[in-house]
């Protein structure tokens, strides 16, 4: 699978909510080692005026920010909306390598450089690359895309801002990684050990495998849509909620744990839900992710899978093992059930849910 993660930060809480614990539940790791200053807060300040973003603040921390791991890859392509909040040197992003034996290494770091541009340095500070000045501005939402390929003998570091290429090392032989590390990466993080203050939204992350989703996707928006109706196959038992509809037990921001939920112990039972009208800033659909927050009730094996019904064709995602504590897991559907490409109308009328395995 070439598309490994998408997130629009719309379901982590209302404006001003400290999202550290919710991000951890969703599989991010949090750095917060110095004091109790919040790492991440939800903000209604977004590029398009729809949904939410997160404000990453590492001031007051010796280590700060949040990140996510993925399978070992020889590179990645990622895009994200960013609003730089400092007029001087400001760390934004790191891409790194975890050897899974206790060693975690920065391959490259990306920072606002105080000249309205970006500086990218290798983790060993042996190499640095710069954009021209006046391409990334303080206090302005912009969309940054990075193509970073270090395996295969032809290193590539390309950066686009709002669709325009502002840095391109393709075709060169200069090292674009920490010299002592393998040509691999498996994590990214926003914010670093140095003070950082940025707002982030609309992330996509691809590896460089496969025949699709292995290049720049362009300026993307990512939105979370909560269930707004039962879709006819709703077989779980309902606890709590604000009404008789099963969807009312799973439509809150942030997830309310055991206050309201749906449950089943029967293999094959499932729930399907409709979604609200797609936001007007979505003009095409590249891919869909189904996020399920779930836990098992007792020790033993418990598994579930995300389900999509698209035009009457139903498809299950891969089974996911559940834990005793709530964890949010994402299943990506790069193509709709039945194949082809997602369409705006097809996505609007599709139904989404979960099945017990």
Description:
- With 357 residues, this protein is mainly β.
- The chain contains two helices and 25 strands.
- The strands form five sheets. Strands 1, 3, 4, 6, 11, 12, 13 and 15 form an eight-stranded antiparallel beta sheet that branches. The protein has a seven-stranded antiparallel beta sheet with strand order 2-5-14-7-8-9-10.
- The protein has helices spanning 20-25, 344-349, and strands at residues 3-7, 29-32, 40-43, 53-57, 64-73, 75-84, 90-98, 104-112, 118-122, 128-130, 141-149, 156-161, 164-168, 185-190, 197-206, 229-234, 237-239, 261-263, 270-274, 288-294, 303-310, 313-316, 320-321, 327-333, 351-356.
- The protein is globular.
- The protein has two domains: 3-206, Jelly Rolls, CATH 2.60.120; 229-356.
- Strand 11 and strand 12 (156-161) form a beta hairpin.
- It is 3% helix and 42% strand.
Q: What low-confidence regions span 5 or more consecutive residues with pLDDT below 50?
A: none
Task: Determine the CATH topology of the largest domain.
Answer: Jelly Rolls
Structural class: mainly beta
Alpha-carbon distance between the two ends? 22 Å
Series of H and E elements: EHEEEEEEEEEEEEEEEEEEEEEEEHE
List keywords for this structure.
357 residues; mainly beta; 2 domains; 8-stranded antiparallel sheet; 2 helices; 3% helix; globular
